[in-house]
């Protein structure tokens, strides 16, 4: 290799010289020579590899063609020398080339394309070509074919990848305006409400550290590198020095030649490095092409080594360009012989090559498959359909294919979820996570020290969160270190300062890998950090003091009616009884014949004395009625009205008694959030800056909006700094303060404070999750571990342990049975039993007095001593086998005359008793009209 007088490089290839001699002479081995030109740059880059690919692709074509042979004619120019480029193109045209390949510079390529368009010589390029500001002109691109992916489609591929990665914000590092133009679709996917996109340009200064530190201080972890391939490795080296290649940083390299860079020293970095590749480096076509290159150079006694995994995109495109051009020549030459023409630039009699336009049109409609996949052009000669490999830097294999992209299907992953999971789990081995949390029972608490005990590290703490992360670590095999967040907050976004606080800020600052506590998954937090699947579901509920129980009252059964009502009822009872007595004395129908069978009896009787009147009204109000009834219309009307009144009072009393006594045991209470919203006496509040406050702030439900307005305007403030403060305020509030909090914390409190309770159901539904930086590679693995613990019942066991067993849990295990809440206890209805007992006792005393009075009456009538009469009556009463009572005629046996006299008196008394009983029966029969059905009383 030497340089010519103009400074260009000349490569001495003996075969190429022979081919040129053949072109001048006419043919070789009977084949027609068809010269093709190529322009390469003089810079010492991969242009040498591209030229080798170009030449040996022609050699392979010539090996299989029988009728023609392609003859390569190569020229070299500087990327910035437009004048020399124009001269070299005219030289190629004068030599009769049928096509011009290259160059790869946008500036020089435009000059070549202009001349080829004038002479109608096909112009084939293999580099990125932007769309002109004025749009595409079909005439200007009539003779140009570009095998490089079309600019807009390639930009869309990058945009799809970013969307698939869920990057909400990112920083673009670029080194030229041309590079920024390639990312226009990426910039267009950013909406007005999305997180800002930062665009940073690097200059020729090789020190990129200040720029990288600025990006690091901004908290950005997603970076797109749109820079030359020779700058990529150095920039990533410096990123590693400033700790910008950690596990939560992600890079996308836009260059299609990123796979050619040796990333050996960065393979073990923790960052995710993704790139795009136009070819499948494991395909047979590329392996075959590389073999041709190496063997051809070996024949020329030159050493050339390149692996298929490191072939440059431009080299592969030159190979495919020669292939598709040769196909067009072959198929068109079969119908009409294609002959080269020597053309002159700037001639007055300008001639154009007659076959050039037909070759270009054929290539546009022809579909080929080469090293770079399917080759399809649009009407403008652009490669609008192509496939891309999405590759990721791995520790073991360098760049590894993880997905493909095409304009029709977008991103399509080729690796299974199992492979991804296994890779992540493997990376977790022997890793130590920093786990941020906050003190709050029962999730994390300081362990109680024993005498002389010194606690350090994770041993300082205990609680649900610690045991949860410990269980996950045993499943995945990592270590962890618990740390407390300095401000003790969960994490809320300040719209004024545009900054986060609490656990979320700790994650954003990369001071922790995980955050575990009662951290609610919210939409706002999800925009800043990632969450695992929920390990606990919950909702907002109301903490309130239990109702105050009233003292027991034996006479609570009287409560449904006021004292005035009871007085009115007693007065009505007496008044109706007196009225019934008076009316019955006045009404003729209530005066009856005592002997219905004697029609000539001059006497009638009235059974409605004051006692019977009182008995009738009492039986009615007790709902039992009476054996005798009035017969006059007036008395029956009075009795009917009284019965109606008694029925209403009895029904109302029995219906309201249980409910009234239940209400008596409790004071007035709230039952739901609606009850709170409707009143202003009982105040209510939430924890400042928590998810519960955010729920009320952002709710569109009218009840919750009204509650938020009430909380916000309340003075003194109803907000608290913690759940414990809210709990204490409820206890001290004497049922004048309610606290809205998450149901899990509320359940923990009510298990230990028996005078507090939960009111109503849940206002919403949400979950607690383990937070981590956005796009953390460990989210899937940790979520899988949480799911595994849930399926095995370990999450339930943990909750039972820390809610109901540890730290005073299980003290308030009595849960009232809803079916017994309205039942009356002995403390409420005991007065009824007292009244019954008193009534029975009084009845017993009256029965004794009646018995003694009867004994006295028998002793007088039988003329015996009271003691003898008492013994005889007791003996008869205790002898339960006797069913008839004998006449009292054997109480004294002193004299026979006494006996006969006693017997005669007894019989006389017995006869009078039978007569009296007959009168009573007849009286009752007359009241019930029994005498009308033909009963005949025995006169004996």
CATH superfamily of the largest domain: Response regulator
Measured by DSSP, the beta-strand proportion falls in 15-25%
* End-to-end C-alpha gap: 165 Å
Instruction: Calculate the mean pLDDT score and round it.
Output: 81
Question: What overall form do the CA principal axes indicate?
Answer: elongated
CATH class of the largest domain: Alpha Beta
CATH fold-level topology of the largest domain = Rossmann fold
Helix proportion = 40-55%
Number of strands: 34
Biggest sheet character: 9 strands, mixed
Number of domains: 5
Q: State the CATH architecture of the largest domain.
A: 3-Layer(aba) Sandwich
- Structural class determined from secondary elements: alpha/beta
- Segments where pLDDT lies below 50 for 5+ residues? 1-26, 664-668, 816-824, 888-940
* Alpha carbon gyration radius: 55 Å
Query: Number of DSSP helices?
Result: 29
Note the topology:
Blueprint: E1 2-3, E2 9-10, H1 14-25, E3 27-28, E4 31-41, H2 47-64, E5 68-77, H3 82-94, E6 100-101, H4 106-119, E7 123-125, E8 144-149, H5 151-164, E9 171-174, H6 177-181, H7 184-188, E10 198-201, H8 209-217, E11 222-226, H9 229-241, E12 250-253, E13 272-277, H10 284-299, H11 313-333, H12 356-365, E14 368-370, E15 373-377, E16 382-385, E17 388-394, E18 398-406, E19 410-413, H13 417-428, E20 432-437, E21 445-446, E22 461-462, H14 464-476, E23 479-484, E24 493-494, E25 499-500, H15 502-508, E26 514-515, H16 523-526, E27 529-531, E28 536-538, E29 540-545, H17 563-586, H18 610-621, H19 633-665, H20 673-678, E30 683-685, H21 691-698, H22 702-713, H23 723-732, E31 737-742, H24 743-750, E32 756-759, E33 766-768, E34 771-773, H25 779-791, H26 794-805, H27 826-862, H28 866-878, H29 896-927
Parallel strand pairs: 4-5, 4-6, 6-7, 7-8, 8-16, 9-10, 9-11, 11-12, 12-13, 20-23, 20-26, 30-31
Antiparallel strand pairs: 1-2, 3-4, 13-17, 14-15, 15-16, 17-18, 18-19, 21-22, 24-25, 27-34, 28-33, 29-31, 29-32
């Amino acid at each position: 290799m030497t340089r010519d007088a103009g400074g260009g490089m000349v490569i001495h290839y003996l075969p190429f010289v022979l081919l040129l001699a053949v072109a001048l002479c006419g043919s070789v081995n009977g084949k027609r020579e068809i010269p093709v030109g190529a322009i390469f740059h003089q810079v010492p880059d991969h242009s040498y590899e591209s030229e080798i690919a170009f030449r040996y692709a022609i050699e392979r074509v010539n090996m299989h063609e029988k009728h023609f042979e392609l003859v390569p004619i190569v020229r070299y120019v500087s990327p910035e020398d437009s004048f020399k480029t124009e001269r070299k193109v005219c030289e190629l045209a004068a030599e009769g080339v049928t096509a011009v390949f290259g160059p790869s510079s946008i500036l020089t390529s435009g000059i070549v394309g202009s001349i080829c368009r004038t002479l109608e010589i096909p112009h084939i390029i293999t580099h990125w070509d932007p769309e002109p500001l004025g749009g595409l002109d079909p005439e200007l691109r009539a003779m140009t074919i570009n095998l490089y992916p079309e600019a807009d489609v390639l930009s869309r591929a990058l945009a799809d990848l970013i969307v698939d990665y869920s990057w909400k914000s990112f920083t673009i590092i670029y080194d030229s305006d041309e590079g920024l133009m390639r990312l226009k679709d990426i910039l267009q996917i950013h909406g007005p409400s999305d997180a800002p996109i930062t665009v940073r340009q690097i200059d020729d200064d090789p020190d990129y550290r200040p720029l990288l530190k600025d990006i690091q201080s901004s908290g950005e972890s997603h970076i797109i590198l749109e820079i030359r391939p020779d700058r990529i490795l150095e920039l990533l080296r410096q990123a590693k020095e400033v700790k910008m290649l950690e596990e939560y940083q992600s890079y996308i390299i836009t260059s299609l030649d990123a796979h050619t860079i040796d990333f050996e020293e960065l393979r073990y970095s923790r960052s995710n490095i993704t790139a795009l590749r136009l070819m499948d480096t494991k395909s047979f076509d590329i392996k075959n092409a590389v073999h041709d290159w190496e063997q051809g150079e070996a024949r020329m006694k030159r050493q050339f080594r390149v692996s298929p995994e490191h072939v440059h995109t431009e080299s592969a495109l030159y190979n495919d360009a020669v292939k598709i051009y040769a196909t067009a020549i072959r198929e068109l030459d079969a119908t009409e012989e294609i002959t080269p023409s020597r053309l002159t630039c700037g001639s007055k009699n300008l001639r154009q090559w007659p076959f050039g336009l037909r070759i270009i049109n054929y290539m546009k409609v022809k579909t080929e498959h080469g090293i770079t996949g399917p080759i399809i052009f649009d009407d403008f000669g652009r490669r609008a359909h192509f496939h891309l490999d999405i590759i990721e830097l791995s520790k073991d294999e360098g760049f590894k294919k993880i997905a493909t992209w095409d304009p029709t299907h977008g991103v399509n992953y080729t690796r299974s979820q199992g492979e991804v999971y296994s890779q992540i789990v493997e990376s977790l081995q022997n890793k130590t996570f920093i786990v941020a949390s906050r003190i709050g029972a029962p999730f994390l608490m300081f362990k109680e020290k024993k005498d002389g005990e010194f606690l350090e590290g994770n041993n300082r703490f205990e609680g649900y969160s610690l045991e949860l992360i410990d269980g996950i670590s045993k499943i995945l095999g990592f270590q962890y270190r618990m740390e407390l967040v300095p401000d003790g907050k969960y994490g809320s976004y300040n719209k004024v300062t545009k900054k986060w606080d609490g656990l979320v800020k700790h994650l954003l600052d990369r001071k922790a890998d995980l955050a575990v506590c009662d951290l609610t998954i919210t939409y706002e937090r999800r925009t800043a950090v990632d969450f695992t699947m929920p390990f606990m579901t919950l909702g907002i509920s109301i903490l309130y003091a239990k109702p105050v129980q009233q003292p027991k009252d034996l006479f609570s059964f009287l409560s449904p009616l006021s004292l005035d009502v009871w007085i009115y009822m007693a007065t009505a009872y007496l008044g109706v009884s007196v009225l019934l007595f008076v009316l019955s004395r006045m009404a003729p129908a209530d005066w009856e014949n005592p002997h219905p069978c004697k029609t000539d009896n001059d006497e009638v009787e009235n059974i409605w004395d004051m006692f019977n009147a009182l008995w009738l009204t009492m039986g009615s109000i007790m709902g039992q009625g009476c054996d005798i009834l009035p017969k006059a219309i007036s008395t029956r009307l009075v009795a009917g009205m009284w019965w109606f009144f008694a029925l209403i009072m009895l029904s109302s009393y029995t219906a309201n008694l249980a409910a009234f006594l239940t209400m008596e045991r409790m004071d007035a209470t709230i039952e739901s959030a609606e009850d709170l919203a409707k009143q202003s006496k009982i105040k209510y509040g939430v924890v400042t800056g928590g998810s519960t406050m955010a729920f009320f702030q952002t709710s569109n439900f009218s009840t919750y909006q009204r509650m938020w307005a009430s909380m916000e305007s309340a003075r003194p403030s109803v907000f608290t700094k913690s759940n414990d403060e809210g709990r204490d305020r409820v206890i001290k509030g004497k049922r004048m303060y309610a606290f809205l909090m998450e149901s899990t914390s509320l359940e923990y409190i009510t298990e230990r404070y028996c005078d507090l309770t939960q009111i109503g159901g849940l206002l919403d539904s949400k979950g607690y999750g383990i937070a981590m930086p956005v796009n953390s590679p460990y989210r899937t693995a940790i979520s899988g571990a949480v799911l595994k613990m849930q399926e095995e019942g370990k999450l339930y066991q943990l909750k039972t342990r820390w809610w109901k067993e540890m730290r005073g849990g299980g003290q308030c295990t009595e849960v009232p049975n809803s079916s017994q809440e309205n039942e009356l206890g002995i403390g409420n209805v005991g007065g009824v039993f007292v009244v019954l007992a008193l009534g029975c006792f009084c009845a017993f005393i009256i029965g004794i007095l009646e018995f003694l009075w009867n004994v006295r009456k028998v002793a007088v009538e039988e003329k015996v001593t009271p003691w003898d009469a008492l013994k005889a009556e007791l003996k008869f009463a205790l002898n339960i086998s006797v069913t008839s009572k004998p006449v009292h005629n054997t109480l004294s046996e002193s004299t026979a005359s006494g006996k006969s006299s006693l017997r005669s008196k007894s019989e006389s008394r017995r006869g009078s008793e039978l007569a009296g009983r007959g009168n009573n029966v007849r009286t009752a029969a007359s009241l019930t009209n029994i005498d009308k059905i033909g009963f005949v009383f025995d006169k004996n």
